[in-house]
Amino acid sequence: MGDSAISDNQEVKSITEKGDHPFADDLADAEEQTYIESECYDTVHPLPEGWPRLQEKLFKRRNLYFRKPVSASISNVIHHLQKLQNKLEAWSREVELEILSQHSSTGNSVIDGPSYEGGREGLGSKLSAGRKHLRFAPGSAQSSNAGVDDDVRSGSGMSSVVQELSIHGKGAVIPQDVPSIEILDEDLPKLGAEEVIDEVVTLLGRLETDRQDTEGTLEKEKQRVHWLQGRIDFLANKRLVELPRAVQKEHEACAADIAELKWHCAYRGRQLTRVKNKVESAEMLNARLNEDIAFVKKHCPLVEEKLDLEMEAMKRIDEAQNQTTGELNKMFEKLKKTEGKSHEAHGKADMERAHIKKELDSVRDALTEINHELDEAKSLHTSYTHKCNDLRRKLLSNAQEKVVLENRNENARAAEKMEGVKVKQTQDMIVDAEFEHRRLADQNYQFNVKIDTMRKDITGLKEESELANKKRLKELRQRQQRCDEMSMDIEDIEVKLKNCKKQKVADAKNVERIKREMSKVETQLGVVDEEHSKTKVINNAVRSKLMGEKDKVALKEDQIQGTIEGLKKQHKEETHSRTILQARILADSTDFQKLQLEAKKKKSRVEKKCNEIENVVASVLSEVEVQRSTKADKMKVVSDLETHIADVKVKHVEVENSLQNKIAELEPQHKKLQSDYLEKQKKLDYMAHRTDFIQKKLAEQDQSDNFMDRVIKNTSEAIEELNADLEEQTIQLETGQRQEQELKQSLMEVAQRLESGDDDHLEHMKLRREVLAEHEASLKDKLQENSNLAHEYRTVQQEYYQQKTNFLQEFEIRIGLEASLKDHKQLNSLQVRLHDALARYFTLRGLYHQNELAGFEENSQENAERILSLQKEMDEAIETISQFLSDQVDGTAMKMVLAAADSAIKKDPQLQLQALVSA
User: What does the alpha-carbon distance between residue 669 and residue 674 come to, in Å, rounded to a whole number?
Assistant: First the structure.
């Protein structure tokens, strides 16, 4: 049904496009009606299973051609559709021609809609039986035409497809009610549309799958683009944050590298300038030395004057040697004197120490007397305090009695008024007064006991304070003694320092004089050949120094390169090293200037002493033999001195070993003494704290004494007032006595009652007295024990003081030994230094004499050879002169001249002609 509709549509389209057929309009109308009717009967069947991926199931072998790139499937679909359209158009033309031929043959037959439609339907049903069909479902009735036109136009390339491609598969159902027209299959041509349609369906399915795949990939790409945008933003932010840091870090590293390179460049520049300066200075020195050598060669040609100068130099050397031996003897004498002075100083120190000990003993005796006086004063103070306490008690008793009397007076007055009624009250009052009297007596006894305990405590504190004062006084004396000893030691050291300074000045003068003599001796080595060799040696030494300095510079550079990392971390050390290098540069510059000045001075000295050497050399030859003999004697003396020095060294080693053993023995004792000293110092600090506390208590006691004095004054004034009151009271008592006489009768009765109470009181008092006697006996025993303990404490304290004095004496002895050891060490060091200096001096002097003698011998040999050569030349010259004179006198010279002239004339004919012409 679908194929018939498509063919009809194609036929109508072809007819309408041509427009020249006579029945074109009728055919078009009929075709539209048939198409509408056929669509009414059409039913849309579902798509086949697996849509749109049919290519994976159907026609796998046939579809291999279309399973190439995705873009080729669209062109294949368009191509197949065009081929199908062409075939349908061709078939529709053939059918139209057949129909026209049938119409023309019959003439009576009329084309009816239903019959034509039924025939077409039957034809379509036969064509489409058992086959798949495809229909395009447009929105209007002309959808098929529009779809075909769009396909054709898109295939031909006339217009672009704007709308989205949509495929709707529809099936065709043959209605059963419509009668079918049997048409032979032989009449219908086989167009191959089924295969093409199947291929188109598969291709469209591929297009749909490709579209879905592309949509999925598009969404994935969008998600990936979104993720990439977020990632790019994150990386951009990270770069914005990290890039400035990295740039800053790189900038700082570059700045540090640039600074380091600048420092290296500056350091290399400084090294280069320094080396150039050294090279220039060496060249200047070499040029000056060459000038000096040329000057010496020019102005010192005579050997005799040089010999005279050498003789004078040898004399001076001998004089210097004699002076040095004399100075050595003087030094030995000074050493002996210093040893004697040291022994005298030790004796004086011992005498002064004994004198100081005597003075300390006298001071100790005076201190004991002062302590006795202090004890007496303290006893007086205690007696006065007891008296004051007694007076206070009396005042208290008087005050109490006054109160009692006032009470009695009041009672008496009341008794006058109420005699009978208040007798019982007076009796009660008397009983209460007696009870109060007893209570007050007990309180008085308790207060006395407390006062005794307080006195004992005060006496104990006083004794402790006295002991602390004694200890402090002893410590003060000891410290004064130490101060005196230290002052004596300081004075001795000052005297020694003064002597050392004097000796130092004398030694400095001697050293300067020796240096001058050595410089003179060195300058007297002015022989030309020797100086030339010396200049060569100096030049080589300068070169070697330059090489050594270059090596040192290279080593220093390596060291500096090795310490670059440390210098980065320690910028302060770098600045410090820079300052050190600057100081070294300044020192090198100052040394260079000093060398220049010394070179100038040496040049002037050489110029001055060249003349002296010329005068000395002449006298040297005559004294060489004498000096050799003296040298042999001196070598013997030197060998003796070396043996003596070896013995002294052995003794020195033995003394050092013995001293080290003593030090090893004394070190543990020293440690023990130090520990004891620390413990004693702690105890002294505690005692000082206690003394301060006691002094504070004494100050408080003094304040209390002053307060008591004031109270006593006030009490004396109160006593005077009370005396006045007593006079008044006596008057009142006289009046009261009258009343007493009246009351005695009542008192007698009361006394009788009290007798019984008195007996009880006496028994109680006896018991209390017995208890008091027992307590007093125990107190005496305790006091005796306390006195014994105090005696033992004093003995122990005396032993402690004796041990302390012994330790101090040992400490003083040890200090003296240490001082003597220090003195011996100083003397030993001075002797060692003097020995080293003498040994070096004698070695240098021997080497110098050997070099001088060797130089003198070489010079004498050269001078003898030169004199012999001069004598030979003089003899030859004299012989030639004498021969010439003899020839002149004898006429032999004229004869020889004439003979020579004759021989020449005979040989040359021209000379003969000239002789004839002249003749």
Answer: 8
CA distances for 483 relative to 475, 648, 910, angstroms: 12, 39, 128
- Could you tell me the pLDDT band of residue 49, with boundaries at 50, 70 and 90? low
Neighbours of 120 (CB within 10 A): 20
848: Cβ contacts below 8 Å, ≥ 6 apart: 317, 521
The yes-or-no verdict on residue 318 having pLDDT over 50 is: yes
Count Cα neighbours of 393 within 13 Å in the Cβ-side half-sphere: 14
What backbone torsions phi and psi does residue 512 show, to the nearest 5 degrees?
A: -65, -40
643, 747, 756 from 750: Cα distances, Å:
126, 5, 11
Nearest C-alpha neighbor of 2 from the set 93, 98, 123: 123
- Report the distance separating Cα 496 and Cα 491, nearest Å: 8
Long-range contacts of 274-282 (CB under 8 A, 24+ apart): 274/585, 274/588, 275/546, 275/549, 275/550, 275/553, 277/592, 278/546, 278/549, 279/546, 281/592, 281/595, 281/596, 282/542, 282/543, 282/546
Neighbours of 4 (CB within 10 A): 24
* Residue the block writes with tokens 């040994």: 839
Compute φ and ψ for 436, nearest 5 degrees. -65, -35
Under DSSP, the state recorded for 64 is G
In sequence order, what are the residues at sequence separation of 6 or more whose Cβ sits closer than 8 angstroms to the Cβ of residue 911? 904, 905
By mean pLDDT, which of 169-178, 260-269, 867-876 is the weakest? 169-178
Give the separation between CA 193 and CA 195, rounded to whole angstroms: 5
Q: What is the greatest pairwise CA distance in the chain?
A: 220
Distance separating alpha carbons of residues 609 and 306, to the nearest angstrom:
11
Top pLDDT among 6 and 523 is at 523
Which residues, in sequence order, are CB contacts of 489 under 8 Å at separation 6+? 819
Contact 34, 113 (CB under 8 A): yes
The dihedral sign for the CA sequence 662, 665, 668, 669: negative
Most confidently predicted of 87-91, 229-233, 540-544: 229-233
Please tell me whether residue 220 adopts helix, strand or coil conformation. Answer: helix
Which residues does residue 617 pair with via DSSP β-bridges, in sequence order? 308
Q: Measuring CA to CA, how many Å separate 811 from each of 663, 818, 822, 893?
A: 15, 10, 16, 114
- What span, in angstroms and rounded, lies between the C-alpha atoms of 469 and 694? 10
Amino acid at 81: L
* Residue 24: band (very low, low, confident or very high) from pLDDT cuts 50, 70, 90: very low
Domain range list for the chain: 2-221, 312-523+613-618+627-862
Convert the pLDDT of each residue in 213-233 to its tens digit.
Answer: 888 889 988 898 999 888 888
User: How many other C-beta atoms lie within 10 A of the C-beta of residue 860?
Assistant: 17
Contact residues for 127 (Cβ-Cβ < 8 A; gap 6+)? 3, 4, 188
pTM over 0.85: no
End-to-end Cα spacing for the chain: 175
**Which of helix, strand or coil describes residue 919?**
coil
Q: How far, in Å, CA of 700 to CA of 693, rounded? A: 11
- Which pair of tokens denotes residue 649? 């060294």
Q: How many Å apart are CA 572 and CA 566, to the nearest integer?
A: 11
Lowest mean pLDDT across 163-172, 362-371, 653-662, 882-891: 163-172
Among 614, 530, 637, which residue's Cα sits nearest to residue 853?
Answer: 530
Which candidate, 821, 811, 816, places its Cα nearest to that of 488?
A: 816
Statement: residue 862 has pLDDT above 70: yes
Q: Which two tokens stand for residue 674?
A: 């130090």
Amino acid at 872: K
User: Residue 707, CB half-sphere, CA atoms under 13 Å: how many?
Assistant: 6
Instruction: Say how far apart CA 890 and CA 888 lie, in whole Å.
Output: 6
Cα distance between residue 210 and residue 541, in whole Å? 98
